[in-house]
Fold:
Amino acid sequence: MTTTELSGAGTAESSFAVLEAKSVTKHFPVRRTRLGGRGPAVHAVDDVTLALPAASITAVVGESGSGKSTLSRMLAKVIKPTSGSVLLDGKPAVAGRRYARAVQLVLQDPFESLNPVHSVRYHLARPLQVHGLASASLGSQVTELLERVSLTPADQFMAKFPDELSGGQRQRVAIARALAMRPRVLLADEPVSMLDVSIRLGVLNLLADLRAHDGLAILYVTHDIASARYLADRITVMYAGQVVESGPAVALTDEPAHPYTQLLLSAAPDPDRAAPPSLAGRGAPPDLIRPPSGCRFHPRCPHAMAVCADAAPPAFALTGERSSACWLHASDLTAAQSRPLQGRGRGGD
Amino acid sequence: MSAERTVPSAELGTPGKHGSDTLIEVAGLHVDYGFGPGAVHAVVDANLALHRGEVLGLAGESGCGKSTLAYAITRLLRPPGIITGGQVKFDGSIDLLSATGHELRGMRWNDIAVVLQASMNALNPVLRIGTLFADALRAHRPGISRAEIRQRSGELLEMVGIPADRLASYPHELSGGMRQRVLIAAALALNPSVVIMDEPTTALDVVTQREILQELMRLRDELNFAVLFITHDLSLLVEIADSIAVMYAGRLVENGPASAIYRAPRHPYSLGLVNSFPRLHGPRQVMEGIPGSPPDLRTPPPGCSFSPRCRYAFDKCRTDPHPPLFTPEAGRAAACWLQDGIETVPDELARKPEEES
Structure:
């Protein structure tokens, strides 16, 4: 183990966003009414804005149902936002081959995302052919892709089928396939959660390499805040379909500003913890068909005030390029607004 | 870890049960899948002791044999799994491997209870939660009255933080965390002295996981049962377990007190595992994990099964048979030639437990 920082580009703040989500919202209807009117809907993602700068890894952290995967699929243009827009290089983009060449998605489960009847060579050569990027030396293009994801010697891997590979190797093939398009954006949805502990770091370090050497803009979607801290330049925390906090990875995890981030960190496994953990909050995420009024976290929040149940907090800008959507950061609340909510927000025991 | 938890003395144990301090003792256990030359050796020469009131963590990656070991101990192993050797003793006297079906049925739930990972699959979707409790109570306490069943089931649910009126719910009406709590409550229904948990919180969100673990630890302190906690998540075990056994490719390669395994591992694989978890504090460092991937147990590597991935491996590791468990110091054991007392141990594998890594 060396004591150097993971080599980030370090210019994340100044560089410009390759891919951006502007106030994207996704509601999944749960039942159509007979006359085609609007029925109830799952508020999977509500008004989320996120920018992915070049040569930088942005982590989106949240529990299941937080909307993090829906967000990554909207960014990949696999599903269409209910409202809001996705901008590539600052311009609205349409889904299609041109878009797929710039933005690639890597999914969670490499056991399902590779076709068991096709060889590794086919998985990597096919997208090149489909997109007209195949040169006369297709074999050497595939070799190069395998080498970029450290599957060496490449000749040995080319003829293999997915069932002959370990989980980590499969995920590397899935990443190599995404890289075949020479994309500028890689969207990785829980890329290591299905992998064995001992090989997760290898895949995370590969993503770090792609940031440093290829200048990729990378979205790292995860439920594991420790791995986000390890890998990402910036972390965005999502709760119940909304962004609650975002900021530089280390600053955000060292001093979380939003009560939900504090809860997540108090619950995360941490062998270095000095005292037994005390949970900063209770309960489970809300029903997203009828999300709570005001701040969606207020029913679980140990600091909930009257205003939290009435109005959704805006994202307050904090120092150090951080922001947190919590009324605790507001300086101009009235006494009535900042009254603690009765019978709520019991702290952890 | 704040303080070392001490193993409570035998007097605190459930009254009426035998007095031995070692509840489960596994000696030289071998488990194969299939037989003949094609047999896969899923568990090789496992030695393990679970003491009264202790939380013993069993850590390892998928396919290392940790669940197979648990199934063998509880005699829940199904064909083609075969126990080919060794001994499993319960409470110092009862030989679990030669127990008859009748004897096993008497011990299950009463003495040894099991909680499995997939809570949705473990609960029958067409039966109410209350029926599950009633079944278990009726089977093991013949003659128990309806009122008693209702009262005991309600108590059990409330013990894990679920209102008693949920007895009337079906599994699909409960969240994943609640279902897992129901299973834990059911496992505790008859006051067992041992609870075996196979990845009980793996499918849950971190906050729910933490709530359940806190509940479990509280119940452990109250009821003084011992837990064999099986998981791939070593960072979690360090927090909750008293001692940890690390398993790799079918063998227990290291065991010792939980904080010692984390701060001062003695086996290169444990060291690799410890270095595979990004930290939540301090400066960010590049971590390497462990190169390569676990071996295919159908074609295990010669010598030490970890040697192809081990940065400390030398010739002996590849040519000699698998190293036995050496005891570098009291209370520690590691199956590595580096710890045989002759080789020079690299600094990383000879840390004092008090030192920070």
Summary: The radius of gyration of chain A is 22 Å.
